[in-house]
Specification:
Elements: E1 4-8, H1 15-19, E2 25-26, E3 30-31, E4 46-47, H2 50-58, E5 62-68, E6 71-76, H3 77-85, E7 90-93, H4 96-106, E8 110-116, H5 119-128, H6 134-138, H7 141-151, E9 154-157, H8 163-179
Parallel strand pairs: 1-7, 1-8, 2-7, 3-4, 8-9
Antiparallel strand pairs: 3-6, 5-6
């Protein structure tokens, strides 16, 4: 059974937008960065201090954590375990390290979907969201695309020209998993 659907890819590639096409539960991760305009604690992220995230790590509460562009990002072990223990299905957005940790620990219970888009489109999307430090985030673009191509089960080209097809593909994957019984209690795919 597939319990965790992971979205991974460079900043601005459309991970959150495509993830929002799914009707399933969303696992909310932690970050030490400040909320952007319109972001809500507990909905978009659990906004925490870096010290709090490090404390959670030291106490074994996290599956993984990473530092990305000066901020901590982390995944709650309890949130993942709860979904798997209940034979549920949920989606999550993490970086390549988080995706690898999930795959290493949970194997076939995890489906990793890589989202890519041309760099120029990622930059435009980040500018539209008024994100800071776009140039610094773009510096890791090539490496992130390369790693996305290496570690993912499915890769979606989420360029502007493919946007409608990307949405349909994600929705079709969810329906296909449901039809195959991969997202229902007692079935293993």
């Amino acid at each position: 059974m597939i319990n965790i659907i992971v979205f991974v890819g460079p900043s601005g590639s459309g991970k959150t937008t495509l993830r929002n096409q799914l009707s399933m539960e969303k696992i909310i991760t932690y970050t030490s960065r400040a909320p952007r305009e319109g972001e809500v604690d507990g909905v978009h992220y659990h906004f925490s201090s870096g010290d709090e995230i490090l404390r959670m790590h030291e106490e074994g509460e996290l599956l993984e954590y990473t530092q990305y562009h000066g901020y901590f990002y982390a995944t709650s072990l309890r949130a993942i375990s709860r979904v798997i223990d209940m034979n549920g299905t949920a989606s999550i957005i993490v970086d390549k390290n988080g995706a690898k940790k999930l795959k290493d620990r949970y194997g076939d219970k995890v489906l990793v979907i890589g989202i890519t888009a041309p760099a120029i489109e990622c930059v435009r999307r980040m500018r539209e969201r008024n994100e800071p430090e776009i140039e610094r985030r773009l510096a890791s673009y090539e490496m992130e695309v390369k790693l996305t191509n290496r570690y993912c089960d499915v890769i979606i080209n989420n360029s502007e020209a493919n946007w409608e097809r990307s949405k349909l593909l994600v929705q079709a994957m969810e329906k296909g998993l449901e039809a195959m019984g991969c997202m229902s209690e007692g079935n293993i795919c």
